[in-house]
Amino acid sequence: MAGAAPQLTVRPSAQLQLTPQLQQALRLLQLSSLELQQEVQQQLLDNPFLELDGEEAQSSENIASSADMATISESNDAEIHENQAEQAPELSDLSWELAAANPEDWDDDRPGPRSAAASDDDAAPGAWELAASSPTLADFLRQQAANLRLTAPERAALDYLIGNLREDGYLDGDLPELAASLAPDADEETRDALLHTLQLALALLHSMEPAGVGARNVAECLRLQLRHAWAAAPQTGDSAAGEGEHAALYPLALALCEQPLALLARKDVRTLAQRCAAPPEQVAQALRWIARLEPQPARRFVPIAHTTLVPDVLVQAGRQGLRVQLNPDVLPRLNVHALYAAALRQQRGHASYAGLHSQLQEARWYVKNLTQRFDTILRVAQAIVQQQRGFFVHGPVAMRPLVLREVAEQLQLHTSTISRAVNGKFMATPQGTFEFSYFFSSGVQTDTGGSTSSTAVQAVIGQLIAAENPQKPLSDAKIADLLAAQGIECARRTVAKYREALNIPATSLRKTV
């Protein structure tokens, strides 16, 4: 049987083709403010038909316009004040073991004194100047070493150990390894002598400030700080060690540092009291002393990466409602160079006209796409403020569930467009500065059949924990029961997930002995 002859058929189909201009518009919409600034600077270098306006320049092609301001009227006459909304409770008094695991959460208290040469009439140095003038850990230690009467080998050994300190102040490697690296080909007698010199230098390093520097592990770091505090207490009158009987408390604290750190982290008074053969009351007092120590002695010398956050949108409260406007600081006053465009029109027919005219068209499209970008961001911000009005009145506890699709339907835009407009954009509000994505969250069911925002549930959990008895902290199951009493259905696992998202430790770590 002969096979069927091949046939040609035509099937109509529709495909979306993204023009270069549309691709550019989508790409600009997704950029953050910092990325956009870099993009604009590059375009100014690449395209001669683009220019930045001065502060007083007004042009029809200027994207910075006072028309980019909108007022969202409220249905009632209630005035919104900056401090009207309930703020999420601040969680404090976290134990030292958590701080050791999360050093980025610590406050920045690095030393930054003014120069001795500065006069009283000089302006106070800014944060950047203080950060630049702060001594490093190595400099701080070498300044102390300069005041010691040491032999040349001892000074060299001490300087060598200082150079082998990690950023957190711990010694990188043990002494035998360091001695072997200094003299790999030396005989045993020479290496023993070098090891003895390093041991003397390490003892000197342990006596320096900050207390605990040069430790090989956390337990040794804590013991060194205890010794510093105990030695300083008689001279300064410091009673850090003195809750109860000092003479018994100090050796007990040293003994506790020899125990597994997991027991100290859990504040397991009963087990620690048995292992150290001490009364539970004294163990609790010693644990409170240890909890005040610094697990990373060089923390204040660690350079902090400073990041300046510039919001894209400003939300201000007033009697008329909430005013939403673009931040003028992020608006590049970019337009087409009118003089160059007029000169090009007089060069029609010239060999270079086609290429220059193409660049002129690209400049016009770029300005137009920039205008569209900021218009879309402003519209999305207005929609968010409308949808989350309760947040601006009552704070995070009044956040409602919101997804990108709702804003997309309200603005008649595609969900992917809203996603690009939300990505990396920030909004300065009377409640603080938040990323656009903060206002989008899933819903948690309530007993009335409705739903509440997961952000609101987190805020309620934070309030419950902030008000708990430190000696009897709430378990996740108990928090779930309290939420159920308020009509919020939330499983224990969900409570644990939200608690971890808030950086709140577990029940055992929150307990105060």
Describe what you observe in this structure:
With 513 residues, the protein is of the alpha+beta class. The protein folds into three domains: 20-75 and 308-439, no CATH class; 137-301, no CATH class; 443-510, Orthogonal Bundle (Arc Repressor Mutant, subunit A), CATH 1.10.10.60. The protein has helices at residues 20-30, 33-46, 96-101, 127-133, 137-145, 152-163, 175-182, 188-206, 218-236, 246-257, 261-266, 269-276, 280-291, 338-345, 353-387, 389-394, 404-411, 415-422, 454-466, 476-485, 492-501, 507-510, and strands spanning 50-52, 69-73, 313-318, 321-326, 334-336, 426-429, 432-435, 443-445, 451-453. Mean pLDDT is 77; it is low at 55-132 and 235-245. The strands form three sheets. Strands 2-4-3-6-7 form a five-stranded mixed beta sheet, with helices on one face. A two-stranded antiparallel sheet has the order 1-5. The N and C termini lie far apart (93 Å). A hairpin with a 2-residue loop joins strand 3 and strand 4. Helix content is 48%, strand content 7%. It is extended and about 90 Å long. It is built from 22 helices and nine strands.
